[in-house]
Amino acid sequence: MITHNNLKSNLKKTAIFSVSAVALAVAGASHAYDFEVGNTTASIGGYVKLDFIYDVDADLGPVVAHENIRLDDEEGADGHTNLHARQSRIAFQTTTPVGGSTLKTHIEGDFFGSSASGAPDLRLRHAYGSWNGILAGQTWSNFGTFIDFTPTIDFNGLLGQGVILRQAQLRYTTGGFSVALEDPATLGGAVAVTDPTSDFDDKSEYPDLTAQYTGSAGNLQYAASAMLRQLQVADSSGDEDDEMGWGVQAAASMELTPGITVRGGIGHGDGIGGYLLGRSPRGDFQGLPIAAFVDSNGSVETVDSTGGNVGVSIAAGPGNVNLAYARLTSDFDDAVDDGALTADDKDRFSSFYANYIWSPAERISYGIEAGLHEVETQGGDEGDAVRLQGMVMYSF
User: Fold this and answer.
1) Is the N end or the C end of the chain the one with fewer CB atoms within 10 Å?
2) pTM for the model
3) CA atoms within 13 A of residue 175's CA, in its CB half-sphere
4) Which range has the worst mean pLDDT, 286-295, 297-306, 335-344?
5) Residues of the domain holding 56
6) Cβ contact 300:241 at 8 Å
7) Keyword annotations for this protein (predicted)?
């Protein structure tokens, strides 16, 4: 059972390590309330978080949406304020000794389920069980890792890293190695078509395959992962085509001295789509990165994407100063030549974050952040936007 002192320590570490990754604490051992039911330990925890956002330029939404950034020659309204509590969440977990191992279950939700102003819907984040190395349900993709995650107040986090989003999967873990079959639709990314009047639609015949290895050596932590998938489309007449997609990524973090930690990661793939955290080239793709396109012959062609990030966390007073830079690029040359995309579509995204996150008392965290976000189109036009953000978080 979690003691009061352990809880305080865990919450403080969580606040200093990462606001966007607070779910790690909720999903881990920092539960505020434990109770026994027979031989099962049940835990409930979570937090309430207010985000106070001011966009100096274009309105980037409740989380940074790079596709909303205006190009330098575009006109539009500047100055937008947005307050929301959609990242607030609650989690319920159980642990039960079963057959010489521990059966764990976890259910968690937040309020990013709907864009309705003032009335967002509850969204399922995690719903899984694990026993004897076998995990089944919905949780973090096995391709991603938090090792290279420098804390940000913006909920989206860092572009170009192995995705830290959740999807349904069946995973087996032994030691530092894990392999999973994952839902092929969740992180598939958008498939652009040459002819927008065609009725080609995504088709998922097989699950995505992911594998990851994590390890450490002294103050160094590292992870490497790989992904293999099938990208497939079909039309109403039964015509279909497919292409294999793949991706790899590596991440590391190291405590250089007490209070100073550096992190970094790099990923690349052909047809990798949403497995690298990114944004869509324009608004009508609903935030999904482009994984592939259908050419004029009805054939699927995959899209190369490369991403990376670097960051540093420096202890200062009751919290940390965090600096991070992240970038994602996609090769749309063939898609533009074939007419599936245009020279006006955005193919390069970058973000720079500077923040201070601190915990003045047990269960309380504050933070302030400035972010500079930039885009570039296939044709070379550029745009940028500045976001200022603060947060107050109360954990329970």
Assistant:
1) N
2) 0.88
3) 4
4) 286-295
5) 4-395
6) yes
7) Signal
